[in-house]
Amino acid sequence: MAQAVQARIGDSEFDRDTAVALRETGVYDAELSAGWTIIHAVNGGYLLALLGRALGEALPHSDPFTVSAHYLTASQPGPAVIRTEVIRTGRTLSTGQASLFQYAQDGTEVERIRVLATYGELDTLPDEVHTTATPPAIPPIEHCLGPADGPAAIPGSSAITERLNIKLDPATVGWAIGAPSGKGEMRGWFGLADGRDADPLSLLLTVDALPPTSFELGLKGWTPTVELTTHIRCRPAPGPLRVAITTRNLAGGFLEEDAEVWDSADRLVAQSRQLAKAPRT
Amino acid sequence: MAQAVQARIGDSEFDRDTAVALRETGVYDAELSAGWTIIHAVNGGYLLALLGRALGEALPHSDPFTVSAHYLTASQPGPAVIRTEVIRTGRTLSTGQASLFQYAQDGTEVERIRVLATYGELDTLPDEVHTTATPPAIPPIEHCLGPADGPAAIPGSSAITERLNIKLDPATVGWAIGAPSGKGEMRGWFGLADGRDADPLSLLLTVDALPPTSFELGLKGWTPTVELTTHIRCRPAPGPLRVAITTRNLAGGFLEEDAEVWDSADRLVAQSRQLAKAPRT
After folding, report:
1. What is the mean pLDDT of chain B?
2. What one-character DSSP code corresponds to residue B43?
3. What is the ipTM of this complex?
4. Could you give the CA distance from residue A48 to residue B170 in angstroms, rounded to a whole number?
C-alpha cells in the first residue's frame, strides 16, 4: 500500500489502537479495535502489545525483555480493562503481571489473557553478539506474495490484513493453492501498512502475525494460542522485518510455533514460542 | 551409580523432595532440599517441579502442558510456601498461577518465583504425530561423559550431581578441558540417579539440568535464569532421556537456551526455552 506520508512511532494506527488510559494506579482502560481482527477474533499479538504497553507504564523499566502470556477466553472488539501488578523492581530488570478483562452482559469482568513479564532497558545493553546465527533465507520482497497476489491471500475477510504489509516466501504459500509443503515452516517480510517502523511493542504483534505453520502441514482451520512467550532482544532498526516460523512437533493435537524476527541490520530482534491447539482433523 | 533397587515414581528422592503439604485451600508448605543445589543455589528446574506439583494439586487437571516461570530472587534450602490461584477451568485445559515464597529473618515472605501454567490430561491426547523431527544424534550412553570421568565434571561441588545421572556428548564437553567448541550446544543423556523413571513433573527438572550452553561458547560463570517456559507434550516412556540444548543468540548480555527432551520411544516429550543472563565477560 503506497503511503503519502509514512506514519511515525508514537503517531500511527498501531499506537492509537494500543492506547491505554490510566483509571487508577495500575489499572488502565483500553478499547480493542475491530481493525485488528481475523474473521471475528481479535489478534493475539495485538492484544499482547496492549498488555505490554500497560506494563511499560506500570513498571519502572520501559522495554519488554520477556513476556509470557496465557490465553484464557476469546477477546472481542470493544472496551477492556488491564489490571497490572508490580511484582519486583530491580536495578536492571523489573517483573510485573497484567490481566486483560472484558465485560459480560451483566457487567462482570471476564479475564481474557494473563501475562507475566520482565522489563529492562534495551538501549543500555552492549552491542556485542557472541553467536553466528544468520537471518532466514527469504527471497527479495518483490518476489514474495501478499494478499493482493491472489492465491496467497489469507482466507476469509480479515481487517488485520489492511493494517499489515506481509509478503510471504513463495516456498511457504503452497497451502493457498491446495499444495502445502508438508514442512512446518512459514516465512515472510513484515511491516505495518502505514509505514510505521518497528519498536519493541510492535514486535509483540509481529511474532503472531503470519499464517500458522499448520497450513503448510496440511491442516486448515483455527489454531488457537494456549500460551505465547516472546523475548525482545534488541531495539529493531528502521525498515522491513523478516520473520521465520518453524514447528518441530505437531503431535497429540498441539503444536509449538517458534518465531524469529530479524531487522534490516541483520540483528535477531525477537524470538517467540507458542503452544497452540492444532486444527481438528 | 548402581542401584540395588530402582526407585519408583511416587517413591523416590525426587518425589520426597518435591512433596507439598496443604496448609489451607490453595496454599502449600514445602521444604527446599539442600540435595538439589549447585554450589549454594537451589536448582531452578527442581523449584519448577515443586511449583508444578502444587499446581497439579490445585487445578482440576493433572499434567502441566505449558509452564511459564519468571525467577525473581535466589532460593535457599529451607522452608517455603507456595500460594496458588485457579484462574480458569475448562473441560480439557485449566490455567493457574503459583508463587513460591521463602521467609526473611523478620518472618516476612519474599517471593522467589512466579509461574503461570496451563494443565490438561496427557493420557487423553491422541498418539498421532504429524511432523518428522528426529531425536538428537548423541553417542551411546557408554561413550558419553559424566562427573566421574574427570575433565567433564561440572565445576564446584554440587549436591545435585549426586541425584542425577547425566552423561554428556563428548562433542559438547570441550569447555571442561579449556577447549569449548564455540557452538551454542549441549547434549546428553539424563536420568535420576536412583533410577526413578521420568514423568511430567520430573521433566520440569530435566529441562534445566545440563550445564549452560554458554560454557561451550567460551563463557564461564553463572547464567541466572530470568524466565523459563516449558511445554510437556507427551508422557515419557520408561528409560533414559536424551536432552539437546541450543542457543542461537547470545547477545547484549543475554542468551536463550532451547531444550528438547526425547524419550526412549523416540517421542519429543518436552520443549523448553529460557532467557538467561550471560556470564560477565
Report:
1. 94
2. P
3. 0.95
4. 42
